[in-house]
Amino acid sequence: MRNWIRGSVFAVWLFGVSGVVWGQGMPKMPGRGDDFFNLGPTGAAGTPLDAKQAEEAGAGRAPAIRVDRVDEKTPAAGHLRKGDVILTAGGRPFPKREDPVHLFSRAVEAAEASRTGILKLTVLRGGRPQKVAFKMRRTGPHSRTCPSRCKKCKAAAMAGLKYLADHQSGDGSFECFTGGINGKVAVTTVAGLAFLASGSVPGQGPFGKPIEKAVGYVMRNAGKESVFKSRMTGKGNMSQVNWNVGYAPWLLAEAYKTTGNPALLEKIKELCAAIVKNQETSGGWGHGPGGPNALNYVELEIVSNFCLTSLGAAQRLGVEVPKEPVDRAIEWIVATSAGDGGVGYSTRPGQQGFGDAGRTAGAIIAFHTLKLDRHPFFGKMKSYFRRNMDKLIGGHVSPCMHLLSGAMAAKMEGRQTWKAYMNTFRDEFMAARCPDGSFSARPTKESQQLHHNTDRGLGPAWITAHYTLVLLWNDSKLRIIGK
C-alpha cells in the first residue's frame, strides 16, 4: 500500500495551492491545526471522548464531549465554556455504541422543535457537574415524509444557499483557500448547481442572479489554471487543470439546458475536447496532463469520474463525444477494482484493488450519465455501493465529495436506497449546521492522522455547497447531472 499512502499525502492538496512555493518559510496551510467536531447550530465545537477518555477527564465512565471552542454571538456563547465536558444532552447521557456528536445533534433538533426552544445540558466544569440551558432558534421537526419533502431539511438547505449568495464574490466566484483558479472553478460549479437545484434559473428566482454570476465566472475561467511550484522534490508535473475542466461542464450543461445559450454549448465542447486531450494513455486522468507528479504517480480515479460525467452530460446535450477515449476510460476504471465492484485509486501496484464507496458512487454516476447502465460492471458497482454506503463519511481526502456522489448514486438507485442513505447521514448533515447557515466539515481518521482537513482547507463555501446540494437532491430541479 506504499504508493497509495504516498498518493494520499499528496492528494491532501486537492487542487494544489496557488501562488505558494513550498520550502523554508512555507506559510501555514489552510485546513491545518484544530480539527474539532461541529456541534450543530449552537456555535460550539468539540471533541468526542470515549468512556476511557471521559474517565481520565474525571467525567465518569460514559462517553462525553469536550468543548474546545465557543464562537461569539451564537446560542452557546456565555453558556458553554472551553474545557467544559458535556455529560448529557436533552437529559440523556451518551450511550457507548452511538456517535456522541450525532446524539448531541438530535438533542439540538428536539430543542428546535420544542415549544420553548431550550436545549438542556449537564456539563462538568471545575470538577463539578453543572446544569446549562440556552435557547435555540425554533425551526420545527422533520416532516413525517423525511427524507422526502422535508421542510426542516429544506430550511437548512435554503439557509445554506443564502450563506452562499451572501458570500459570493463580485466576479461570481466563491472563496477557495487552496487551488487558485482550479479550486474556485470547482467550488463555484458546485455552488451554482446548488442554486439551480433549488429551482432558480439564470436571471430568475431567488438565486437567479448568483447563478448568472457563477456561470459567468466558470465561462471566463474554465480551462485556465494557476500552476504552483514545488520544492518538495524539485521536479514533477504540478498541473491541476483536470479538476477545473472536469467540474465546469456540470454547471454549464445545466445552465445550457435552462437557457439554450449557444455560447455555453461552445464552451462545453471546448472543455470536452480538453478532457479528451488530457486523458492519459492508460485511459485514466491525473490532476493534470504532463506525466508523473512530484510524488511520481499519474492517475487518480476520482478525477476520471468527473471527466467522464462531463463527457456524458455533453453527449446528452447532443455533443458528439468520441467513443474510443470513453471505452478506454471505462476499461481503466474496471481495472482499478479487485473484481468486487469497488472502484480503486488507480491501476498501479499498491493503489489497485482498494475499493472505496465514494469513488464507486462517482463511477456509477459517470456510467449512468454516459448511458452505460447495462455494462456488466455497473451492477457490481451498485451492489458494492449499497454494502459500503455507510463508509462514505470517512472518504479519502474530501468526504464532502464522497457524500455528494453517494447522494447522487443513492437517489438514482431508487427510493429504498435513498431512504437508507438519508437515514444513515441525516444526523451528520444536521450536526454540520452552523448558526450563520453554513456547514462545517467533520474530522476523519485520515484528517486527524495527517493533521490536515482538506474540506476545511478548501473553505466553508466548498463544504456548504456540497451539503446544501445533498439536502436539495431529493427534489432537485437539475435536468442533466444525476438524472
Give the topology.
Elements: H1 2-11, E1 37-38, E2 44-49, H2 51-56, E3 64-70, E4 85-89, E5 92-93, H3 100-113, E6 118-125, E7 128-135, H4 151-166, H5 180-197, H6 208-221, H7 241-259, H8 262-278, H9 301-316, H10 323-336, H11 357-369, H12 376-388, H13 399-413, H14 415-431, H15 445-450, H16 454-458, H17 460-472
Would you kindly provide a written description of the structure presented here, covering whatever features stand out?
This protein is an alpha+beta fold. It has 2 domains: 2-30 and 146-475, Glycosyltransferase, CATH 1.50.10; 37-135, Roll (Pdz3 Domain), CATH 2.30.42.10. 47% of the residues lie in helices and 8% in strands. It contains 17 helices and 7 strands. Strands 1, 2, 3, 4, 5, 6 and 7 form a 7-stranded antiparallel beta sheet that branches. Helix 13 (399-413) packs parallel to helix 17. The two termini are 36 Å apart. The model is unreliable at 1-13 and 15-28 (pLDDT under 50).
- What is the strand content? 5-15%
Q: How confident is the prediction overall: mean pLDDT? A: 91
At the first level of CATH, the class of the largest domain is Mainly Alpha
Question: Can you count the helices?
Answer: 17
**Level-2 CATH architecture of the largest domain:** Alpha/alpha barrel
Radius of gyration: 22 Å
Instruction: List how many beta strands DSSP finds.
Output: 7
Distance between the termini: 36 Å
Helix content: 40-55%
Query: What general outline do the C-alpha atoms trace?
Result: globular
CATH topology of the largest domain, anyone? Glycosyltransferase
Question: Low-confidence runs (pLDDT<50, min 5 residues)?
Answer: 1-13, 15-28
